[in-house]
Amino acid sequence: MFSEPHGFGRTARRSSGLAVIRRPTASARHRKLAGKSTRTSADVHVIICISNKTCVQIEIVTRNGTGASSRLRTRAQPAAATADAADEPNLLAGQAAGENFPVALRLLPARRRVHLTAVYGFARTVDDIGDEAPPEQRPRLLDDLEADLRRLYARYGGKSSGSGGDSGSDGDGEEPRSRVVRALAPTVADCAIPMQPFLDLILANRQDQVVSRYATFRDLLGYCRLSANPVGRIVLYVFDSFTPQRAELSDSVCTALQLAEHWQDVAEDLRAGRIYVPAADMETYGCTEQDLAQAAAPPPVRALMAFETGRAKAMLDAGAPLIGMLRGSARVAVAGYVAGGRAALAAIAAADHDVLRTTPRPRKRRLAAELILAYARGR
Questions:
Q1: How does pLDDT run across 270-291, given as a tens digit for each residue?
Q2: Is the separation of the CB atoms in 257 and 341 below 8 Å?
Q3: Domain at 13-377, CATH class
Q4: Are the C-beta atoms of 120 and 49 separated by less than 8 Å?
Q5: Of 32, 3, 61, nearest to 329 (Cα)?
Q6: How far is 292 from 296, CA to CA, in rounded Å?
Q7: Parallel, antiparallel, or unpaired for β 38-39 and 359-360?
Q8: Residue 56: which H helix or E strand, with range?
Q9: How many C-beta atoms lie closer than 10 Å to residue 61's C-beta?
Q10: Which of 50, 140, 247, 345 is surrounded by the most beta carbons within 10 Å?
């Protein structure tokens, strides 16, 4: 649930939520980096980073206009996940946090800014290991990162370790070895975040290494519970706003944002060897994997996407009352997440549900309108 539809939500396709701001860059460059054309506004964009691996565009600006958002979308720098797990997985996350995320975070109070930067760095690192490291190294790197997370909670977590596993008392245990995990220490201590959401993000990436197809929508929801929902819950802790009722609504928003990103990126995911569209739904609408590989969506694929986006919209609307339960910067942030999801789904509909010809992206005006409406109505 950062700003990167894609999480209250999977950023980097699973990561989460603040707006990153940059000056507009050439759309051709974005298309080249992304590997295909995109349906974007010529105006300034806004990207909201969400689940641990997503990016719904709301609006954007960087200090120097270097096109940082394209790096967020493509994650074209795998070095962070390929070297020694103790330190090297932090390089990419550190660069992302140092160059892009803080620009947007200036809009928030300093305390929230520091904590969300630390969470973003961890979520981004997990995702880069799962997506960019050599496949044979990914399980070991994820294991090493989990071991380091457990060191953190053993030393600093105290009661915050909660459902996340065993931990020692405050001040005991070994110092975490990786910079990205050490950076979480003040956040874990100040915000009393349990370990389980962080463990779930790692587990989602483990699942990505062995699961590339989902038989049913229920199976896909199980994946979203690991890849998207934890970030929303973490962000609620950071904003001192966590309650069981709010967490349930947050889960609905985060899952919807993750689904929106999946439906935008059907073609991109297929090129990566993954299909998130449930096999049962594909069978119902008479779609095959060959249909998903076409340059333009045939009628069965369009009908299927209309169904899937309708279901995602209903889930997003069900979680939107969370906005009305929040105040201040938390309300603005969550309204932004919901607005980004609604605008992304509207962009798919505007493309006549053809998610294969281009990647449908919302326009700036639609995003701004959705944000104002969501904030004012509180849902």
A1: 999 999 999 999 999 999 999 9
A2: yes
A3: mainly alpha
A4: yes
A5: 3
A6: 9
A7: parallel
A8: strand 56-57
A9: 19
A10: 50
**Bridge-partner residues for 106, per DSSP?**
none
Please check whether residue 224 is in contact with residue 258, taking contact to mean a CB–CB distance below 8 angstroms: yes
Domain ranges within the chain, ordered by starting residue = 13-377
- Phi/psi region, residue 175 (left: phi>0; alpha: psi -120 to 50; beta: rest), is beta
CB of 89 within 8 A of CB of 137? no
**Per-residue burial over 181-211, b = 16 or more CB atoms within 10 Å of its CB, e = otherwise:** bbbbbebbeebebbbbbbbbbbbbbbebeee
Cβ contacts of residue 129 below 8 Å, gap of 6+? 80, 81, 89, 138, 141, 142, 145, 205
**Length reported for the chain:** 379
8-state DSSP, 11:
T
Q: Which two tokens stand for residue 133?
A: 């490291």
Q: For the chain, percent helix, then strand, then coil, each to nearest 5? A: 60, 5, 35
SS3 category, 237: helix
Question: Per-residue pLDDT tens for 284-321?
Answer: 999 999 999 999 999 999 999 999 999 999 999 999 99
Place of tokens 């980097």: 12
Query: Maximum CA pair distance of the chain?
Result: 61
Dist CA 58 CA 70 (whole Å): 14
Burial of 169 from C-beta contacts in 10 A (0-12 / 13-18 / 19+): exposed
Per-residue model confidence as pLDDT tens digits over 1-53: 543 434 444 443 443 333 332 333 333 333 333 333 333 333 333 333 333 33
What is the SS3 assignment for 336-378?
HHHHHHHHHHHHHHHCCCCCCCCEECCCHHHHHHHHHHHHHHC
